[in-house]
Amino acid sequence: MTMTTHLALIGEQPMPVLFIDRYLHPARTLLVCTRRTQPVAERLRRLIANCEVLPQVDPYDFNQVMQLLDERLPDENGTVVNLTGGTKIMMLGAFAHAVNRKTRFVYLESERPPQQLHVFAFTPAAIKQTVEELPKLITVDDYLRAHLDGYHCEGFSCESDGSLTDGGRFEQAVYQALTPHFEILSGVKPAGVGDQIEIDLVIRHDNQVAIAEVKLGRGSEGPKKGIDQLSTAGSREYLGTYTRKLLITAGYPKAGIKALAREKQVAILQVKGYQDGLPLRSAQDLVQQVKSALAVS
Fold first, then answer.
1. CA dihedral defined by 241, 133, 96, 9, rounded to 10 degrees?
2. Domains in the chain and their CATH numbers?
């Protein structure tokens, strides 16, 4: 798709904008945000080349949105308007602008991978709609920096002397089983939250990302704590609604833990045969479980 400008509406979730921008490769990108979504826009600006954050709009002022777009978007054929984010009023304003200018507009379908981009173009007879499947567009680092102001990796759980804990050895075994098939970071700590959040593994396949807590599962404390950690890290305020949540355990979770996991939308992946290492068959089974959880064929 030949284009010069990508105009994107910014909501709470950054990935629809980043996916589409990486796919379109525009000469410049303009982000329309509100006071609430300004931080999202600023994080995206750091990830996108030739990107400008436009003055904030009132999320429910249709005429203000229209006026801003009319002033800042040139009357040219190379503009694509991204309707995926923002409020419904912002979307209606951007759609009205696209109709007035006969400008192409797009919408990202992202409920399940692979993500599909719906492209709409004006023709003399009607609006033509086409659908394009998105290829791999991001890394784990892209994903984390789109959601967080920063992060660092501490690796597997260790004792005070630097040796791995029992849980750290299990984390390492899981990491080694998954690494040939996925991009993974271990011991991820978001910046600015102290010791409140630490994510054992962040796992990516294509454009789909999951966070995982890795627990031996001895007693109820480990699995429940893992579910609580996933719920916090995978909230709208941190890694957002596009992130899958996985509890990887070597134990046998009780019915109460399974019910809590379902309530919190956490997938439990059980690892069998762990004895300071994973047998080949157990490692292969874990890989398939993770692919299934990420909806990877």
1. 40
2. 5-133 (3.40.50.10770), 140-293 (3.40.1350.10)
